[in-house]
Specification:
Layout: H1 2-7, E1 16-18, H2 24-34, E2 40-42, H3 45-50, E3 58-62, E4 68-73, H4 78-89
Parallel strand pairs: 1-2
Antiparallel strand pairs: 3-4
Length: 92
């Protein structure tokens, strides 16, 4: 959420994907509780296959052409992730 605020003016768009079986019943209260500042969609099998979503959490940085530039399974290191994000946005 911090990166959305910090980099949205540079073109960063964040979309969360939930694959919870309970769907919106679980997701909406979580979004409210966390005060999320980006949209969340419910992922389906098609999306899971397209982006090879095999682990949770999975963080993807997708470039302006729609190609996956960085894929990271598990919790990301904030400093390393921000450096990758800045490079992708042209803030090297």
């Amino acid at each position: 959420m911090e990166f959305v605020t910090k980099y949205e003016h540079s073109g960063l768009a964040v979309i969360g994907v939930s694959t919870d079986r309970e769907g919106w019943t679980i997701v909406k209260p979580f979004m409210r509780e966390m005060q999320m500042n980006y949209p969340v969609v419910l992922g389906d099998e098609n999306l899971t296959k397209r982006y090879n979503l095999t682990a949770m959490p999975l963080t993807l940085l997708i470039d302006r052409e729609g190609k996956v530039a960085v894929s990271h399974a598990g919790v990301v290191d904030k400093i390393d992730f921000e450096n990758q994000l800045r490079a992708l946005l042209g803030h090297v």
